[in-house]
Amino acid sequence: MTLAVVFALGAGSYGYAWARIRRLHRPFPRYAPLAYVAGLAAIAAVLYGPLDALADASLSWHMVQHLVLITIAAPLLLFGAPVRLALGALPARAAIPLARALKSVPMRFVAHPLFGLALLTAVLYGTHFSPLYESALENETVHAWEHSLYLLTALVYWTPVFAIAPAPYAASHPLRILALFLSLPMSAFLGFAFYVTNRVLYAHYAGRPDALADQMNAGAVMWLSAGTPVLLALLWCVADWGARERRLGAAFDLSEDSR
Fold first, then answer.
1. What is the total count of domains within the chain?
2. Domain residues for 75?
3. Which one, out of 9, 22, 48, 169, has a CA that is 20 to 30 A from the CA of 54?
4. pLDDT of amino acid 26
């Protein structure tokens, strides 16, 4: 229920703000609403479709569910540029304080790529290797809060990587690439821990005749599948870096020609 409320509020607020900026004829990327809707669709597919029932019965499908939230849904929501949309839709008396808050020192700290990586690592390891994960499997309210935590943490991690304007912290491309590279062993070690253990970690799945094999599959999903979105993000970041350098070079050539 918790995530359903957040889902409804996010969809409704975005739709209202998008309609408002269209009425005001303010510029906004055409792809952004499509990306945002795709992000919401990804959330709905894994939390309210058949996959949710599969996740309740299988740890490997549960891992797929979490990976979709963290590596697919969160980036798509960010490409929907919700902060830019809010700044464009809000009246000036509300937009100006929001813009100032985005540039504040605490926000710049939170939006640092390495902080996002540290937070995501702490949340993933802290939930999977603590009683919280078992509690989430047995209690729907705790489970909803766990999903909300994964999604929120993923948004914090991906925000400085993609730096969708107006990003609070425009980190350098090498720093973004470093944060992406460091996330690869983080997910690999987590998956490896599931893969090599010889005991079932969660009592919720212990009744399955293939519980240990299913747990190994969950580790393989985390170990192998989590790296694919990161590699795609690396390619995007390198391409964006090259485009930025070309823009700077063109601007420099233009300034030289105008002398």
1. 1
2. 2-257
3. 9
4. 87
Is the preceding peptide bond at 166 cis, omega within 30 degrees of 0? yes
Per DSSP, the residues of the chain read -HHHHHHHHHHHHHHHHHHHHHHHT----THHHHHHHHHHHHHHHHHSSHHHHHHHH-HHHHHHHHHHIIIIIHHHHHHT-HHHHHHHHS-HHHHHHHHHHHTSHHHHHHT-HHHHHHHHHHHHHHHHTSHHHHHHHH-HHHHHHHHHHHHHHHHHHHHHHH--SS-S----HHHHHHHHHHHHHHHHHHHHHHHH-SS-S-GGGTTSTTHHHHHHHHHHIIIIITHHHHHHHHHHHHHHHHHHHHHHHHHHHHHHHT-
The answer, yes or no, to whether residue 70 has pLDDT greater than 90, is: yes
Please, which pLDDT band fits residue 118 given cuts at 50, 70 and 90? very high
**pTM: predicted TM-score of the whole model, two decimal places:** 0.89
Buried b (16+ CB within 10 A) or exposed e, 168-198: bbebebeebbebbeebeebbbebbebbbeee
